[in-house]
């Protein structure tokens, strides 16, 4: 019976030698309205509500909050609600809030810079206030950063149609994607410099199938297809971003940099809605006009009776049901939405690979 202890010992050694990272202890979020409703700067024609930046309804959970739940963490609080002490920031912070004066612009690179600065300062503060240097290191190593930019920028770019080329004269629509992808990749590198070791970068959804773009491109679609030109534009951005991260990885030793292909995940639902319990993959649950894409959601009364059967919540954003599937697929080893590793592995919530 000496065999059993031996086997156990062997197993323990195997586990110990695996590069399993310790479970993540905090989730920090940077991004646009896909990361927090407080970051919404889209022209929804609801300026009359004037009820602050979180337009109705914010009851729908967004992807970062769903991921926080999977990590066993509370939804990261908005940075503006914190009192500036490390204790409040210890489990994570959501830095995605609208920058003053950002409204109406296609994209302000400054918004990324501003959030990056706040994130870097927070990380620094956590290190400074740690009891021991080891605690400081584990605080940085235990932090997961999620970056979710691009959707609002593309929403604005697409809303202006050919006019957008005139508003971005130096770059054009495609050049704009390159610029944005480069900025996001640079942010990943800058977070690394500040001590971040686990970073997740979200791509942009197939906005060519989003209610707003479908409505704008009514003359181009038959109600079942999507606006290909818009999807191609977004795919160009996603591909550029993925390539930039790929190029970055060898330069950031000891870090896990994950790209999650939100486009692929959403497209799977849009192509096979019934497979995932949806019966509406084009029309917004909450909105007016064709596809619910003319006017966005601004009252409870506008909400459809069965949100869980819609892929799209409003003009450009997914329902909680769709986001929950994206979260599950990002988490799971059985899907390839996130590369090169799934988020369960990244966050250290699994010690065995299978
Ligand atoms: C907002 O409403 C005005 C007038 O109702 C309309 O002309 C304009 O196109 C709308 N803008 C958007 C972004 O829906
Ligand atoms: C900040 O908030 C934390 C947790 O809510 C609380 O314990 C702490 O006393 C607050 N500090 C200040 C200076 O307000
Ligand atoms: C996601 O996974 C959780 C936990 O495994 C499950 O309860 C939930 O129903 C899943 N969500 C969807 C939309 O399938």
UniProtKB/TrEMBL annotation:
UniProt keyword Hydrolase, yes or no: yes
GO molecular function, one term: hydrolase activity, acting on ester bonds
Annotated InterPro entries: GDSL, GDSL_Est/Lipase
Keywords: Hydrolase, Lipid degradation, Lipid metabolism, Signal
Cleaved signal peptide residues: 1-17
Full protein name: GDSL esterase/lipase
PANTHER family xref list: GDSL LIPASE/ACYLHYDROLASE FAMILY PROTEIN (AFU_ORTHOLOGUE AFUA_4G14700), OS12G0126100 PROTEIN
A biological process term (GO) from this entry: lipid catabolic process
